[in-house]
Write a structure and sequence with these properties.
Distance between the termini: 77 Å
Number of helices: 4
Strand content: under 5%
Helix content: over 70%
């Protein structure tokens, strides 16, 4: 095993542990993260495996297969983050509306205060 393989395997283990801490309330996310980082470690330990899988899928090289998978994973992550931000914006809008309605002063007979 080369030194870069040792470093990458260690980083995969750290990533899996960090994901378990970050996703502590979501079991499905934790399982997905462990599978992802486990697969990454297997690809590091057996680098020829990605080429074999790529050839079976009709892709020339394992590096190309990993690039394609990385691009789609990046797009998926971007869409998840976008969806999360939209939900936060909607919740914030609802809270601000509720607060504005609670603090609104009803106009009296002379009109609103100046």
């Amino acid at each position: 095993m080369t030194s870069i393989q040792s470093i990458l395997i260690l980083l995969s283990a750290v990533g899996a542990l960090a994901a378990n801490v970050v996703f502590r309330s979501r079991a499905s996310h934790r399982v997905f993260a462990v599978i992802f980082f486990g697969t990454a470690a297997v690809c590091v330990i057996f680098p020829g495996l990605t080429t074999d899988v790529a050839k079976k899928l009709g892709v020339g090289r394992g590096a190309d297969l990993l690039l394609y998978a990385g691009v789609f994973a990046g797009i998926y992550a971007f869409l998840l983050l976008y969806l999360h931000i939209r939900r936060i914006e909607q919740k914030l809008t609802a809270v601000v509306r509720e607060l504005a309605l609670r603090q609104a002063i009803a106009p009296g007979p002379q009109g609103p205060p100046e």
